[in-house]
């Protein structure tokens, strides 16, 4: 699990530019002497799964290359409350100015990883995969999907160019499942997977008659999902989607679907509580 170094640098620079604005860190410039040094620890305030440590390190060194930064945990590690995650020492001004950007990245991405890990744990012992969706914060998709992998999940499409996913609106405009699938097959290369969304078991049977790689079972009940698995009989990969909660997800996995997609992993996740403690 690694982030592309160029993407990492680009995201940190964008976040710092947003925070520094036109004038820079007015508060630190006004209250902290240039020669003042400090030591700080990034500390987990609650237990969770870590993601985004390289971004935190980059935030500090991008502000001041002389800062000494040491990561005490790695992405994918489980941390306990009060556990130190990173130390940084050097000029206090750089530490203070980079603090919020570093914490924002690690807090948010660790929240994604932690929630993902909870879903992965909830479906044991079933072999079903938990995957994220394209319901991501604009501009942060690659980072959020990376955090999902840190939590033990898998990635759905990164973008519209990854695969063909025919949804209900495509079907409506194309004139039905058969027409939509025929049109997709006429343009898809041999490496491009085709997935289609269905809402009913009758639509599932129609899609199977036409032949398709993956079928998304949208907002189906547990009984419908069980019947869908029986009807499919291993012909296509089955993805269950819609209203997935930690309380329900094990029962969905027990129906025998191959994949469960969970939009909440990225679109409504709670930050992991992480702080930075300064020691002069």
What does this structure look like?
There is one protein chain. With 280 residues, this protein is α/β, with parallel strands linked by helices. The protein has two domains: 5-120 and 269-279, Aldehyde Oxidoreductase, domain 3 (Alpha-Beta Complex); 123-267, Aldolase class I (TIM Barrel, Alpha-Beta Barrel). Helix content is 44%, strand content 19%. It contains eleven helices and twelve strands. The protein has helices at 5-20, 26-31, 53-63, 92-122, 141-150, 168-174, 177-187, 201-210, 222-232, 249-254, 264-267; strands at residues 37-44, 48-49, 68-71, 78-79, 84-91, 129-131, 164-166, 194-198, 214-218, 237-241, 259-261, 274-279. A six-stranded parallel beta sheet has the order 6-11-10-9-8-7. Helix 10 links the parallel strand 10 and strand 11 (259-261). Helix 3 (53-63) packs antiparallel against helix 4 and helix 6 (168-174) packs across helix 7 (177-187). The mean pLDDT is 96.
SSE diagram, text form:
Blueprint: H1 5-20, H2 26-31, E1 37-44, E2 48-49, H3 53-63, E3 68-71, E4 78-79, E5 84-91, H4 92-122, E6 129-131, H5 141-150, E7 164-166, H6 168-174, H7 177-187, E8 194-198, H8 201-210, E9 214-218, H9 222-232, E10 237-241, H10 249-254, E11 259-261, H11 264-267, E12 274-279
Helix pairs in contact: 1-3, 3-4, 4-5, 6-7, 7-8, 8-9
Q: How confident overall, as mean pLDDT?
A: 96
Going by CATH, the architecture of the largest domain would be Alpha-Beta Barrel
Helix-strand string: HHEEHEEEHEHEHHEHEHEHEHE
Query: Helices and strands: which structural class?
Result: alpha/beta
Q: Count of helical segments?
A: 11
Distance between the termini: 35 Å
Number of domains: 2
Placed side by side, the strands forming the largest sheet appear as 6-11-10-9-8-7
Reading off the top of the CATH hierarchy, the class of the largest domain is best stated as: Alpha Beta
């Amino acid at each position: 699990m690694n982030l592309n170094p160029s993407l990492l640098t680009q995201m940190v620079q964008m976040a710092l530019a947003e925070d520094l604005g036109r004038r820079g860190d007015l508060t630190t410039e006004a209250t902290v002497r240039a020669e003042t040094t400090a030591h700080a620890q990034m500390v987990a305030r609650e237990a969770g799964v870590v993601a985004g440590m390289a971004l935190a390190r980059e935030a500090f060194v991008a502000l001041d290359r002389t800062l000494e930064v040491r990561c005490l945990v790695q992405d994918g590690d489980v941390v306990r409350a009060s556990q130190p995650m990173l130390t940084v020492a050097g000029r206090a001004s750089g530490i203070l100015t980079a603090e919020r950007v570093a914490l924002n990245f690690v807090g948010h991405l660790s929240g994604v990883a932690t929630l993902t890990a909870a879903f992965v744990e909830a479906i044991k012992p079933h072999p079903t995969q938990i995957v994220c969706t394209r319901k991501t914060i604009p501009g942060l998709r690659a980072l959020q999907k990376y955090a999902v992998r840190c939590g033990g999940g898998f990635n759905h499409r990164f973008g519209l160019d990854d695969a063909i996913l025919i949804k209900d609106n495509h079907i409506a405009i194309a004139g039905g499942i058969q027409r939509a699938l025929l049109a997709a097959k006429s343009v898809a290369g041999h490496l491009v997977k085709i997935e289609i969304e269905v809402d009913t078991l009758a639509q599932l049977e129609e899609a199977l008659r036409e032949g398709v790689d993956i079928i998304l079972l949208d907002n189906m009940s547990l009984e419908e999902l069980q019947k869908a698995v029986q009807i499919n009989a291993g012909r296509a990969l089955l993805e269950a989607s819609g209203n997935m909660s930690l309380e329900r997800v094990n029962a969905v996995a027990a129906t025998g679907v191959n994949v469960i997609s969970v939009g909440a992993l990225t679109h409504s996740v709670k930050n992991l509580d992480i702080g930075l403690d300064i020691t002069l």
